[in-house]
Write a structure and sequence with these properties.
By secondary structure, the chain is mainly alpha-helical. The chain has a single domain (about 25-175), classed as Skp domain (Protein Binding, DinI Protein, Chain A), CATH 3.30.910. It is built from 6 helices and 2 strands. The protein has helices at about 1-25, 35-40, 45-80, 85-140, 160-170, 175-180; strands spanning about 30-35, 145. It has a two-stranded parallel sheet with strand order 1-2. Helix 2 (about 35-40) crosses helix 3 (about 45-80), helix 3 runs antiparallel to helix 4 (about 85-140) and helix 4 (about 85-140) packs across helix 5 (about 160-170).
Amino acid sequence: MSRWFNVIAAVPVLALAVTAATAQTEPMKVGVFDPEVLWKQTEVGKKFNQDLGAARDRLQSQIDKKQDEIEALKAKVRQQQASLSEDRINDMKKELIGKQTELDRLNEDATKEMKYQLGEVQGRFQEMLVRTLETYGREKSYTMILNRGVVDYSAAGVDISQDLIAKFNEMHKVQAAGAPPKKPADAPKEPPKN
């Protein structure tokens, strides 16, 4: 039994020795990047942020318009309350409740739309980022590239965020971010020969 125990105990030690020998012949090359920096500084990331900002502004202007309608109706009810009949005041209050319901729905729909758009854009950006990391890592012979969010400490010399921004911009043009890639034009067909 002690012979089997020695063999079993030797296997992990042997694996560590092989790993150490490999590490000595090929030094590990590790890079760290900040995905937030890439999101904010790549051309595609800037375009995505701009598009999201435009969508947010469009939705916010619809909400603001509805809020202005509600405030105007509230002011009208306050001003005319003494001179209007009870039925007319009740009608205006019902209209006010209806407009408030519309505003609530508008807020809810805007929140859902923004969450959906953000998820879509972040998903597309993440796919581009993964392709960029794989290409950059192979080209530069990195053993490992880590996200700064999961690293407690890294020396400044291993931060490759700026190099990744350049590689990302090279691989992913802004046009590709918003629109599907253009298909090459078909070659003109030659007229049939007689």
